Amino acid sequence: MSAEILIYAVVAAGLVFWLRSILGTRHGSERQRPNPFTAQPPADSNAPTVNRPGVPNAAGLVGAETVIGPLTLPKDGKVTLGNPALETILQSVVQADRGFNLAHFATGAQDAFVMIVEAFASADRELLKSLLSPDLYAAFEGAIKTRENEGQTMSTEIHAIRKTEISDVRIKDKMAYLTLRFVADETSVIRDRDGAVISGHPDRVSETIDIWTFGRDMRSKDPTWFLFATREEEAGATNIPTLQ
């Protein structure tokens, strides 16, 4: 192997590593992790707290005093609980899975949102398969194949996730399902085989509102919450396939 070829190989390997390291990190602090639900948050004095006087609950989501617990929401205020009645079901999730941490889950779900949206646009099947349920992956795969057969390419960038609301929590047959409402700013463009724009605008940021349901088998040792369903709050808000 000549020195010139060796240099090109080293440069190419470096580019691949760089691209993989930044995938899915544009909405906040950069996290280089393929599984957004794996890493656990550090337990320290800076952990987020919530104080709601007069409503006793030792779980940490609400309490007569400021407490820290598995159901404490992130302290940035961007993640909210849509209905206080969901607290009881969330406590059941904690009882079934002692490792569950709501703040960590919400952060992981936001990371997964960015990773999945951008992976769908770039046709990163490997990443999608690792974070989607089999049925939803089949829907995404079908949409990607249709796009490829028509010679179209898609590029999507999530600029910011401005709000995340936990709108529903359910437990069924040892499966826990958490539904989140994401309000995000994105730029998305679809081009034909000649590179002409047929949808979206490369210099325009649009607000999208998506409802995603993540699920996890409480009996599994795998900490990953897989995406089971997506839908749009308003028709035409996004180009992600929908599985009702």
Textual characterization of the structure:
The protein is of the alpha+beta class. The protein has one domain: Roll (Nuclear Transport Factor 2, Chain: A). The chain is built from 5 helices and 6 strands; from the N terminus they run H-E-H-H-H-H-E-E-E-E-E. The protein has helices at 3-22, 86-96, 102-122, 125-131, 134-149, and strands spanning 79-81, 153-172, 175-191, 197-200, 206-217, 226-232. Strands 1, 2, 3, 4, 5 and 6 form a 6-stranded mixed beta sheet that branches. Strand 2 (153-172) and strand 3 form a beta hairpin. Helix 3 packs antiparallel against helix 4. The longest helix has 21 residues, at 102-122. Residues 10-33, 41-67 and 235-244 have low confidence and may be disordered.
CATH architecture: Roll
- Please give the CATH class: Alpha Beta
End-to-end Cα distance, whole Å, is 54 Å
The percent range for helix content is 25-40%
CATH fold type = Nuclear Transport Factor 2, Chain: A
**What amount of the residues lies in strands?**
25-35%
* Radius of gyration over all CA atoms, rounded: 20 Å
Write a compact overview of the structure shown:
By secondary structure, the chain is of the alpha+beta class. Helices cover 31% and strands 26% of the residues.
